């Protein structure tokens, strides 16, 4: 997991330094992919205790977000934050926590 976090940080930094040339449609599609990815992981998750749930959700989101970052989308922009808030309101806290971790 730490390896993925390091990769995410490096990728986000690279994307930030290069600027975002991503269209709104690409950001919309990426947000949808993240939402669907997390939903799929949740649907396939077995019964787990509440204390493990928060960590599991965080790891699942990180995995899905890394796929987006690796595809070249900067998920740290204000525009992407707005789209994520609109598309995946239930993931807002998890998304914001992820962004804090990769700063």
Describe this entry's structure for a reader.
The model has no long low-confidence stretch (mean pLDDT 85). The protein has helices spanning 2-18, 24-43, 50-70, 78-87, 92-102. It is 77% helix and 0% strand. The chain contains five helices and no strands. The chain is an all-alpha fold. The chain starts with a helix and ends with a helix.
Write the layout of secondary structure elements.
Layout: H1 2-18, H2 24-43, H3 50-70, H4 78-87, H5 92-102
Helix pairs in contact: 1-3, 2-3, 2-4, 3-5
Helical content band:
over 70%
Distance between the termini: 16 Å
Instruction: Please tell me how large the radius of gyration is.
Output: 13 Å
What's the overall geometry? globular
- Give the helices and strands as they follow along the chain: HHHHH
Number of helices in the DSSP assignment: 5
Oligomer: single chain
List low-confidence stretches.
Answer: none
Q: Describe the sheet with the most strands.
A: none
Content-based structural category: mainly alpha
Mean pLDDT: 85
Number of strands: 0
Beta-strand residue fraction: under 5%
What descriptive keywords fit this protein?
single chain, 103 residues, mainly alpha, 77% helix, 0% strand
Provide a concise account of the structure shown:
The protein is built from 5 helices and no strands. It is mostly helical and 103 residues long.
């Amino acid at each position: 997991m730490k390896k993925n976090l390091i990769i995410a940080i490096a990728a986000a930094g690279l994307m930030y330094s290069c600027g975002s040339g991503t269209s709104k449609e690409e950001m919309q599609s990426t947000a949808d992919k993240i939402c669907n990815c997390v939903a799929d992981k949740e649907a396939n998750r077995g019964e787990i205790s509440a204390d493990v749930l928060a960590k599991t959700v965080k790891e699942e989101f990180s995995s899905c977000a890394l796929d987006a970052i690796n595809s070249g989308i900067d998920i740290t922009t204000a525009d992407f934050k707005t789209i994520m808030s609109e598309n995946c309101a239930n993931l807002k806290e998890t998304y914001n926590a992820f962004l804090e971790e990769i700063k």
